[in-house]
Design goal:
- It contains 4 helices and no strands.
- With 112 residues, the protein is an all-alpha fold.
- It has one domain.
- The longest helix has 30 residues.
- The protein is globular and about 50 Å long.
């Protein structure tokens, strides 16, 4: 997020002198924020941002981790064995780390 803000500031899209807020109310489904759902949301959002960035940056290669992450997300939700859930969540965290690294590398490439 910091890197994206730096890019926006350097391109003149944002200045840090003003704050804009919107109080529009929108009806949406809200899910209980478990660790598993928060990590899954971050993986989905990183993929969405990478897709948008790929349209702007030529030759941007990235891997789609959402299919495997979604499968792991559902497995964590239905697994009752605590040790197996921990193993699955650790797998999800590794996938999450890979996604974050992809975003960081893409932002660096975009800045070049």
């Amino acid at each position: 997020m910091v890197s994206l803000n730096k890019i926006a500031i350097s391109e003149g899209l944002e200045d840090i002198k003003q704050l804009r807020q919107d109080s529009t109310v929108v009806e949406t489904n809200i899910h209980y924020p478990t660790n598993n759902s928060l990590v899954w949301d971050c993986i989905k959002e990183s993929h969405r941002l990478l897709s948008q960035l790929a349209e702007e940056v030529k030759d941007l290669d990235y891997r789609d981790y959402t299919k495997d992450a979604k499968r792991t997300f559902f497995k964590i939700n239905i697994t009752r064995n605590g040790d197996k859930r921990i193993d699955l969540f650790n797998k999800q965290l590794i996938t999450f780390t890979k996604c974050i690294n992809q975003v960081a590398n893409a932002v660096k490439k975009a800045m070049l």
